[in-house]
Amino acid sequence: MGRFILGRLAATLPVMGVVAVIVFLLLRLAPGDPAAILAGDAATPEQIAAIRARLGLDQPMLEQFATWIWRLVHGDLGTSIISNQPVGRLILDRIEPTLALATSTILFAVLVAVPLGVLAAWRHGTWVDRAVMGLSVAGFSVPVFVLGYLLIFGFSMQLRWLPVQGYVSIADGLWPFLSRLILPTLTLSVIYIALIARTTRSSVLEVLGEDYIRTARAKGVTEARVLRRHALRNAAIPVISVIGLGIALLISGVVVTESVFNLPGLGRLTVDAVLARDYPVIQGVILLFSALYVLVNLSIDLSYLLFDPRIRY
Amino acid sequence: MGKVVGKSVGSGWPATLGLLAALAGTAPALAQGKPVTIRAVMHSGLRITDPIITTAYIARNHGYMIYDTLFATDAAFKVQPQMVQDYSVSDDTLTYSFTLREGLKFHDGAPVKSEDCIASIQRWGKRDGMGQKLMEYTASLDVVDDRTFKLVLKRPYGLVLASLGKPSANVPFIMPKRIAETPADRNVPEEIGSGPFKFVKGEFQPGLKVVYEKNADYVPRKEAPSWLAGAKTVKVDRVEWINITDYQTAVNALINGEIDYVEQPPHDFLPILKGASGINLVNFNTLGMSGMLRMNWLNPPFDNAKVRQAVLLAVNQQDYLDAQIGDPDYMVPCLALFICKTPNATEAGAPKPDLAKAKQLLKEGGYDGKPVVIMQPTDLAISASLGPVTAQALRKIGMTVDLQAMDWQTLVGRRAKQDPVSQGGWNIFHTFWVNADLLNPVNNVGVNGRGKAGGWFGWAEDAEIEALRNAYALETDPAKQVDIARQTQERAYTIGMYFPTGQFTQPAAASAKLSGILEAPAPVFWNVEKK
Amino acid sequence: MSALDETARPLPANDPGVPRKRGRALPPMLRHPAVLAGLAVLLLVGLAALAAPWLWTGDPILLRPRLRLRPPSEAAWLGTDAFGRDVWSRVVYGARVSLAIGFAVSAVSVLVGLTIGLVAGYVRWLDAVVMRIMDGVMAIPSILLAIAMVTLSGAGIGTVIVAIAIPEVPRVARLVRGVVLSVRTEPYVEAAIGAGTRLPKLLVRHVLPNTIAPLIVQGTYVAASAILTEAILSFLGAGIPTEVPSWGNIMAEGRQAFQIAPWVILFPGLCVAATVLAVNVIGDGLRDALDPRTARGVGVR
User: Fold this and answer.
1) Number of folded domains that form chain B
2) Phi then psi for A68, rounded to 5 degrees?
3) Shortest CB distance from B258 goes to which of A33, A164, A260?
């Protein structure tokens, strides 16, 4: 099994290599010029050319790529073109709010969605099921930013219960931290809840149709026990895997949610960097997000070992 | 105390404790309270901290926080000494001698010396348009003693003080010599000035948050503050600039009391802000701002003067103002290129909408029906609304328009391209300026006629207008300057250098807890009190 | 960002690989009232899009700056936006653009993904390379990829369609490849290979029928999420040109006036929600009808 884990880890390397190439090509082949942005409103073409040369942007593309990879391998993500700060430091500065938001969203979504999904499957075909499924489809149908505005309008502006925006580190107090995280978490988790609830429902339904459940029921095992012992445990795998796949969805949502609620996280860092053509920052953050995605999915694959005794590698 | 502050880098508790300790050391009265902090949302995030290498207004505003200037412009457009105590001009108007005020100190504790001022002027003179002109006419800049230095001109030049007291980007801010020796295309390595606020480096998050603290060593002038001149007395402990990109969120946060100040709330939000309790709208920049429609002289059809004139006759300033501002209280219809209600204001040569004549000129200009590329920056609300209005006006006279949406930074990159449209070039873009940057033929880049050799984007080329601009720069008689400005404007309109899409004012929104916000062409935080 | 990824997982190897008869699957689905309602909504929106010029609309891009942000009235049924454009006209014409984007994105991603998946599933030596590239594309957050592509290559409907479609391709490709791999091992397919059936025929006969059902379902989810993604791209300032009326565009431009002129964002918002809901419901209905596993689940209680 150790060899299996090592093998899987090694398999992530080519994937990250592909990501690096795609991101680099995408940025360099596209128009837009960080030098012109740096030079500002009254710049002359000569000034812009001088800045381009200083940033090394006039080098052949292959050479720029090699330089970037060489530094990357040595743990150096490069330096922001615009703000002159190391990309590593920029990421560290911004990672906390994003982590907090992502974690709270996953926790909240799982806590709400799994029971809902089980309930819907258990009461399959009844109004409970239809309500849960109806709501979950509706969850996919509202643009994230509209939902965010509505929540701010209701809870912050009308009721005045929660702050509109911002982020306070948990080190500065639990309530200030939580109160600013509630609305973004709600906004972001709606789509996630919908996704997990649906998956839970369908996989529990599937399990409930299996022969061993029928056998258990026929043996007189109580419904609650059937659900807990057999259905939930066996339905866990698809649910866990959808959580992993949902990481991509979550990251996309984070970008929008962070700008609606003014959270100083990685999503905003990336959008800002794209708009400013800050190549090293875009490359660094996308690479980080991709690595995160790959690692989460890897650990989910590994967690199957725990949940499903039938899977042996 | 310096030591304590030095430790208070980083964020969270250690910083707050450090700051409290620091305050306890200097101001016992404040020791039991929290530091008085203004939280402000500025129009953009600060990323480049060097106000000399960029003309970005946010960098200029940052400059006014931490740096000081030799001269400054007051509310009557007069240039007043600021760091300078006395100055004298020789009878032949060739030699200017400046003496600094006593007790000026940089944030690192070093006194401000003549050599610092000279190095700073020289660096600025490499970047700024007016600075380049001043350097062109300067024979030498010499240290006389630590507090006195001399500027010797090659020939009489009317704009020496106006250049040094220039209110807007790029402002000749004074930095320590070692920092001013940074190459003029590279960001300064340290943010150290002698201004009323200090930059808190440990809390700086580019594009997100900038923190300033009161410079306790700053000695304000005795005169009352007026515009950017006079006393710069700081009345709070800290100013934090927070960048909130979504204005909906910023305005809501202000109403909810989470922040104290929003520099540029879009005009559509003003009714909400007017209706909210505890919020004041403060029109600090009474001189206002202006929009600009700029055509590219290098590419057809606008390489033809007749087509450019056709555009000037097709557009209607009121349409732009209605779309951009909406509320008549904040718009100032004005066709004076050098800004209404200022010394050089005139409507001479201004076009009146005339569609029939526009169509005729278009025909004479040989327009072939090829689509005209208008670049529209959708992420910059104030410029975004101009493109569609121009598009509609051009369609009305029979032009084909390709209105291309992009973000502002793409536009900035693309407008620098002199290539044909088929190779990534462009035909029209819109931008806006703080009116302080448009006041005369020398500093208004829209009437720069140097073409590809040192001209501004669009590369208008005209020898006659360059002659007028030089004449303006060399003229020392204000009355004659006004006349040259009039001629410049007439010429600029005739050859279609740009169209002013109208002046407007942009009030800031401030919590009622703030008082003493000064009128100035840039948002400044001295003199502001917070209850 | 395909919202409903559960259908996108490659089918497990023990999945019944026997081709299903397609024709029989649809009618029971139509008996479901929710699916019927979804089809009705979609039909209505589609008809409105086709008949846009005759639905009492004006020029959707005509600016009337002096009439900006007027509330709904007889002259402008849904009010006007910040440029004084008629919101009703824009919403109706917007249906064309938004539906076209949903359809085009799902068509592009399904076709490209199908091709890649078939090739990867059959050509062994290409499989590893192609699938690593697919993994790489999948690992990049789709919104960031789309923003980068649109801002970097210029905003146009075509660019937006490609930018939204590309991140969806790997999911389709994986799905198809999974089917191909499982079908390959079926005895009747091995028999066919042994009998010398040529590749194209093999694909058409045995693989396509097995992929069509899940692809249709996947296609509806892609279409629904594309309409939403287009709105998000516009919100982030990386959408289609602002003059072109799309629901996303109208909302993104109107969000500034959300509190003073809610009608600008409300009506396109309702349209997006209703349409996406309808497409999702239809997708669910299709899946239930086409997937025997959930159908078995129904029989349990």
Assistant:
1) 3
2) -65, -50
3) A164
Q: Do C241 and B404 touch (CB under 8 A)?
A: yes
Query: What subunits make at least 3 CB pairs under 8 angstroms with A?
Result: B, C
Residue recorded with tokens 């923003």: C147
Which three-class secondary structure state does DSSP give residue B105? Answer: strand
Write the secondary structure of A189-241 as one string of H (helix), E (strand) and C (coil). HHHHHHHHHHHHHHHHHHHHCCHHHHHHHHCCCCHHHHHHHHHHHHHHHHHHH
232-291 in chain B: CB under 8 A from chain C: 247-248, 266, 268-269, 271-272
Under 8 Å between Cβ of B461 and B452: yes
In CATH terms, the fold of domain C65-294 is MetI-like fold (1.10.3720)
Residues of C in contact with B404 (CB under 8 A): 154-155, 241
Domain residues for the domain of B88 are 68-180
Q: Do you know the residue count of chain C?
A: 301
B3 lies in some domain: no
Q: Minimal CA–CA distance to B63: which of B141, B9, B135, B124?
A: B124
Task: Work out the angle at residue A209's Cα, subtended by the Cα atoms of residues A207 and A214, and round it to the nearest 5 degrees.
Answer: 105
A21, A45, A73 - which closes a domain: A73
Q: Are A199 and A239 in contact (CB under 8 A)?
A: yes
Angle value at C-alpha A56, between A50 and A58, nearest 5 degrees: 70
The domain boundary, picked from B180, B201, B235, lies at B180
A and C: number of Cβ contacts within 8 A: 181
Asked if C235's CB is within 8 angstroms of A15's CB, the reply is: no
Q: For A30, name the nearest residue in chain B, comparing CA atoms only.
A: B410
> Which chain B residues have a beta carbon less than 8 Å from that of C155?
404-406
B438 close to C (CB below 8 A): no
Q: Does B14 touch chain A (CB under 8 A)?
A: no
- Residues in C touching A289 (Cβ below 8 Å): 140-141, 144
Print pLDDT tens along chain C (301 aa): 333 333 333 333 333 334 444 444 456 666 677 788 889 999 999 999 998 888 888 888 888 888 888 889 888 889 898 888 999 999 999 999 999 999 999 999 999 999 999 888 888 888 888 888 898 888 888 888 888 888 777 768 888 999 999 989 998 998 888 888 888 777 877 788 788 777 777 777 777 777 888 888 889 889 988 998 898 888 777 778 878 899 988 988 887 777 788 888 888 988 988 998 898 888 878 877 776 544 433 332 2
Q: Nearest residue on chain C to B385, judged by CA atoms? A: C83
Do A46 and A192 reside in the same domain of the chain?
A: no
**Number of domains observed in the structure of chain A:** 2
How close is the nearest chain C Cα to the Cα of B433, in Å? 22
Domain shared by A104 and A207, yes or no: yes
Residues A36 and A144 in one domain: no
Which chain C residues touch A19 with a CB distance below 8 Å? 136, 139-140
Residue A250, domain member (yes or no): yes
Is B424–A277 a contact, with Cβ atoms under 8 angstroms apart? Answer: no
DSSP-assigned states of every residue in C68-88 = TTPPS-SSSTT-B-TT--BHH
Q: Is the dihedral of CA B395, B397, B398, B401 positive or negative?
A: negative
The DSSP 8-state label assigned to residue B510 in this structure reads E
Say yes or no: ipTM exceeds 0.90: no
Q: How far is B314 from chain C (nearest CA, A)?
A: 15
First-to-final CA distance of chain A = 7
Query: In terms of domains, do A26 and A106 share one?
Result: no
Q: Is C188 on the interface with A (CB under 8 A)?
A: no
Cα–Cα distances (Å) from A111 to A114, A132, B27, in that order, read 6, 15, 51
Contact B55 A171 (CB under 8 A): no
Tell whether C284 lies on the interface with A, counting CB pairs under 8 A.
yes
Q: Which member of A21, A252, A294 has the closest CB to residue C142?
A: A252
| DSSP-assigned letters across all residues of B341-396 | TSTT---TT-----HHHHHHHHHHTT---PPEEEEEETT-HHHHTHHHHHHHHHHH
